[in-house]
Amino acid sequence: YVMLLTLSPYTPTYRDRVSPPGVMIRPYLHGFTIAFNVSKRSTWQPYVDSMHRFLQAYDDKVQEEKNIECVAGRYFVQGGHESEEKKACRFKRSLLQSCSGLGDPTFGYSRGQPCVLLKMNRIIGYRPGAGVPVSVDCKVQKGNESDLRSVDFYPGNGTFDLMYYPYYGKITHVNYTSPLVAMHFTDVKRNNPVPIQCSLKGEGIINNVNNDRFLGRIIFTLSIGK
Fold it and tell me: What is the value of pTM for the model shown?
């Protein structure tokens, strides 16, 4: 009990061996296979509904009310006592452009060009990239590379801006919303399962551990029928 009293509820006591971040995707409904037929709305509508629910916290008005405009390209380090509430930088869903669900409320699924969102797991105090933004790259995990002919990344060229880091924990960083990178798969082979691997790229990132498919990368399958 006495030892527990020495632990801070705000930050981990030891952070000298912080693991690089894992990643996760949205939508995530039935495991790591996104399968639908373009001509059958009922097969892709659940993915669309899931995306809209997930992005509610990123609505522009919500972000403008709760969070602040930050200086891009540098870490947002906040001083003061560790118990003080921390400010959070705005991440508006409009930054996701074609994958925001604003211009196209179906996120491309109705055209067989699905959007998939990727986010890094939160790690208290972690500053990814050692001063250079971490980016995302996608390729065919196994098989013919020509099955994946075109991917667009948002925002910008698919990077996690430094201003969203470090994260100070859910107790004090109450309005924090994790930054996202949207992958818009605009040209994927139809009627054939295509295994995709999307990886983080940057200083200090580990993405090649064979027994951990979520550390610095994620593997999922796109199966788009007519």
Answer: 0.89
